Amino acid sequence: AKCLGREDLITDPRFATKPDRHARSIELIKIFDETFATKDLADWRKILDGNGLVFGIVGILDDIPNDKQMLDNEV
Questions:
Q1: CA 13 to CA 25: how far, in whole Å?
Q2: Phi and psi of 59, rounded to 5°?
Q3: What is the DSSP letter of 74?
Q4: 3-state SS string over 20-60?
Q5: CA dihedral in degrees (17, 26, 36, 14; nearest 10)?
Q6: What pLDDT score was predicted for residue 37?
Q7: Cβ of 33: how many Cβ atoms within 10 Å?
């Protein structure tokens, strides 16, 4: 939440416990989607890597022609 600039979520009673977050997962994902849409991947990578967070990118089919690993391995 701090890395996302959404410290308000830390004390938001809707997401106080794991069961609360699970029950409101659709709402929480919407908040995350809106937040992540405010910066490009390079910016988020710097922020998340800079704070020691492990993360991964969910690719889509359109990513394949320019995927570095695919190109490096001549797939």
A1: 14
A2: -80, 165
A3: T
A4: HHHHCHHHHHHHHHHHHCCCCHHHHHHHHHHCCCCCCCCCC
A5: -30
A6: 96
A7: 9
End-to-end, the C-alpha distance of the chain in Å comes to: 38
Look up the pTM and report it: 0.73
Q: 8: helix, coil or strand? A: helix
Q: Which amino acid is at 52?
A: G
Length of the chain: 75
From CA 36, how far away is CA 60, in angstroms rounded?
Answer: 17
Residues of the chain predicted below pLDDT 70 = none
**Burial (CB count <10 Å: 0-12, 13-18, 19+), residue 57:** exposed
| Integer angstrom CA distances of residue 53 from 45, 49, 50, 57 | 9, 6, 8, 13
Pair 20, 26: CB distance under 8 Å: no
